[in-house]
Specification:
This protein has 9 helices and 8 strands. With about 250 residues, it is α+β, with helices and mostly antiparallel strands. About 30% of the residues are buried.
């Protein structure tokens, strides 16, 4: 079971697929063992093989499982109409994210008509230290949980403006707690700037974060300060209220 899951995880990193020799090298299994596991996964439609290239890719059963999981998520279904409206209003891409094992996971994405190519896709992961949504999700952690996650961070420099020290990052999170929103100031992807805001559950805990993302020449600091801060605060209230949170003042 563990080896089969390792194969699925590895294939998820290669949307165009891998041939069996390369795949077996990547997962550290013999070619015969990899072939046997692929045969089982193929029979269950978790993996499919391209007849022209002989490459193995994830099959439709994976999509079926993930779609059912996400469609049944109360966060996704509740937030989606609001985030679609937000994307239309600001004409930029909107992401919805949660935290899992010290990383952010994109659980929904609303593309704008004029968006540019971004690495994000539903189900993909990204670091917490270089993303606005990651900063929001960390800002609500208990001191114990925050310190544990902080100790596990590698602070990889993804762009020239990525925060790369614990001391600077702790200051950043304190700032996020005070202002109630977070910025990715071209810290995760070149030329992309984001502003993120929390989503609260009925207990007042941050259970997700959403962000507005776009090229820095459109999502300028002036635009953020004049318009987007108010926008994300408005939608934090709308989505959170629909998840049962009553802590906002009238």
């Amino acid at each position: 079971m563990e080896r089969a899951l390792t194969i699925l995880n590895k294939l998820s990193e290669y949307p165009d697929g891998l041939q069996i020799a390369r795949l077996s090298e990547q997962v550290g299994l013999t070619k015969s063992t990899t072939h046997r596991l692929l045969a089982t996964l193929s029979n269950m439609n978790y993996v499919t093989q391209d007849e022209e290239t002989d490459k193995y890719k994830l099959g439709l059963q994976i999509l079926f499982l993930s779609r059912n999981l996400l469609n049944n998520s109360n966060i996704v279904s509740t937030a989606k109409p609001f985030l679609q409206k937000l994307s239309q209003e600001v004409k930029e891409t909107v992401h919805l994210c949660i935290e899992d094992q010290g990383e952010i996971v994109y659980i929904d994405k609303i593309e704008s008509d004029r968006s540019i190519q971004m690495y994000s896709r539903i189900g993909s992961r990204a670091p917490m230290h270089s993303t606005a949504v990651g900063k929001i999700l960390l800002s609500d952690k208990s001191q114990k949980d925050f310190e544990k996650l902080l100790s596990q961070m590698k602070f990889v420099r993804r762009t020239p403006t990525t925060i790369t020290t614990k001391e600077e990052f702790v200051k950043e999170i304190e700032k996020v707690k005070v202002q109630g929103y977070a910025l990715d100031n071209i810290e995760n992807e070149g030329v992309i700037r984001c502003i993120a805001s929390p989503i609260f559950d009925h207990k007042g805990k941050i259970i997700a974060s959403f962000s507005i993302s776009g090229p820095s020449n459109r999502v300028t600091m002036e635009y953020i300060e004049s318009t987007l801060i108010d926008k994300v605060r408005e939608y934090t209230i709308d989505v959170s209220r629909n998840l049962g949170y009553t802590g906002f003042r009238s």
